[in-house]
């Protein structure tokens, strides 16, 4: 075990600490230009560093966001930049960092933490569960034609360099968090995750405007050459890196536009909702191929009673869950969950589960019965599975759609 302390970095330690975690995540250290641009991307009071003999050996940080949950929104911590120096791994550093961070979330009144996992084997140990998946899709543009019955509800325009930084912000705010798992985007996110890369990567922004003159969707994409020495005329691809639409008409309009772009052989989109019907919009649905289905958003309930009380439940008879959480034992106990709310109880449990599995149930992405079938939920009362399936269900599968 290495002797280290976990604390907020002091001002003079911020850049060395963030450079350390950049190296741990296999990025290059910040240049002066990058640091000047992103110095305040991470809040010092929301960042925790692990220090040994005054030198940084680990870090985690988060941003305050609102997270869409079934029936509403909840304050949450969007966790990012988790890393440990390569010569100090497997010594309890990340465990201490993440536990300290979770307790900080509770104290801030943020009952939920969320992250995108760099490795799928790490975060379950700390109570995070895969709350939803996302699919990666490649569309063969040479074969893809939109069906004639796909609705046309407006038009699409390319934004100018002056509009590209601002208009997507306005659209994202206007369409709101309409699906569980979506999060708010603060100004530092837009500066780093959108503005900084527009010019650097040659990204373009297309916006859909409905028949009433309202902008209701956008797609950010970049052209990529597929040519090689052996196949110099292989054509190009469009990598769609950010796409949000307020309604099916806007989604269809953006796809109709992308499919109309010349000199393109393939359109590649990442991290899309599992129920998004890209293939069914095409005359040949096989022109769209799902190339991967991956864990997307991981959820950790830092304050179980507050988190459970912050979402809506469907109409079904109540069920009593017994939750195990050895890392935050104050979360442990039995909870009666029903359409009228949540309360602690001493009644017999119908289902028992660990807190990471509760994170999988929380946004409605997984039925309790399916998780019971693979040993993640223990049914003391088998009839409780049917009730839990109904209570936690939601009309649309969860999806985040924001990298952080």
**Number of self-contained structural domains:** 3
Tell me what portion of residues adopts beta-strand conformation: 25-35%
CATH H-level name of the largest domain... which superfamily? Gcn5-related N-acetyltransferase (GNAT)
Note the main sheet. 12 strands, mixed
Backbone shape: globular
Percent helix, as a range, is 10-25%
Mean pLDDT: 96
Short structural summary:
The chain has helices at residues 14-24, 32-38, 93-107, 167-175, 187-200, 248-260, 304-309, 355-362, 368-373, 383-392; strands spanning 5-7, 48-52, 55-69, 72-84, 112-115, 129-140, 154-158, 204-210, 215-225, 236-245, 266-272, 288-301, 319-324, 333-338, 341-344, 351-354, 377-379. It has 404 residues and is an alpha+beta fold. The protein is globular and about 65 Å long.
Structural account:
The protein has 404 residues and is α+β, with helices and mostly antiparallel strands. The chain has 3 domains: 5-110, Aminopeptidase; 135-294, Aminopeptidase; 303-392, SCP2 sterol-binding domain (Nonspecific Lipid-transfer Protein, Chain A), CATH 3.30.1050.10. 25% of the residues lie in helices and 32% in strands. The protein contains 10 helices and 17 strands. A 12-stranded mixed sheet has the order 1-2-3-4-5-12-6-11-10-9-8-7, sandwiched between helices. A 5-stranded mixed sheet has the order 15-14-13-16-17. The chain is globular, with a radius of gyration of 23 Å. The two termini are 31 Å apart.
């Amino acid at each position: 075990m290495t002797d280290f302390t976990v604390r907020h970095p002091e001002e003079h330690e911020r850049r060395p600490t963030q450079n350390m975690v950049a190296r741990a995540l296999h990025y290059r250290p910040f240049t002066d230009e990058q640091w000047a641009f992103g110095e305040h991307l991470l809040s010092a009071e929301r960042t925790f560093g692990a220090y040994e003999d005054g030198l940084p050996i680990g870090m985690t940080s988060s941003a305050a966001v609102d997270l869409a949950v079934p029936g509403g929104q909840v304050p949450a911590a969007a966790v990012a930049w988790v890393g440990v120096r390569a010569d100090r791994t497997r010594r309890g550093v990340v465990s201490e960092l993440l536990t300290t961070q979770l307790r900080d979330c509770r104290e801030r009144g943020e009952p939920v933490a969320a992250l995108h996992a760099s490795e799928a084997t790490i975060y379950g140990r700390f109570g995070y569960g895969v709350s939803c998946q996302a699919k990666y899709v490649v569309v063969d543009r040479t074969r893809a034609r939109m069906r004639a019955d796909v609705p046309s509800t407006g038009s699409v325009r390319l934004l100018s360099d002056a509009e590209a930084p601002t208009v997507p912000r306005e659209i994202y705010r206007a369409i709101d968090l309409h699906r569980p798992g979506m999060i708010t985007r603060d100004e530092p996110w837009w500066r780093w995750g959108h503005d900084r890369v527009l010019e650097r990567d040659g990204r373009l922004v297309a916006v859909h405007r409905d028949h009433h003159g309202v902008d209701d969707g956008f797609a950010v994409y970049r052209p990529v050459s597929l040519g090689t020495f052996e196949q110099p005329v292989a054509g190009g691809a469009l990598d769609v890196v950010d796409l949000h639409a307020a309604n099916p008409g806007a989604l269809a309009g953006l796809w109709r536009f992308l499919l109309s772009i010349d000199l393109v052989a393939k359109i590649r989109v990442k991290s899309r909702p599992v129920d998004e019907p890209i293939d069914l919009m095409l005359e040949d649905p096989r022109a769209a191929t799902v190339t991967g289905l991956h864990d997307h958003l991981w959820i950790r309930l830092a304050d179980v009673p507050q988190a459970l009380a912050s979402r809506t439940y469907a109409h079904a008879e109540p069920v009593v869950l017994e939750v195990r959480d050895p890392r935050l034992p104050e979360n442990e106990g039995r909870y009666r969950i029903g359409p009228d709310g949540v309360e602690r109880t001493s009644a017999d449990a119908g289902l028992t589960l660990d807190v990471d599995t509760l994170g999988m149930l929380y946004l409605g992405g997984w039925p309790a019965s399916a998780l019971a079938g693979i040993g993640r939920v223990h049914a003391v009362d088998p009839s409780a599975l049917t009730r839990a399936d109904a209570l936690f269900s939601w009309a649309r599968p969860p999806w985040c759609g924001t990298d952080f």
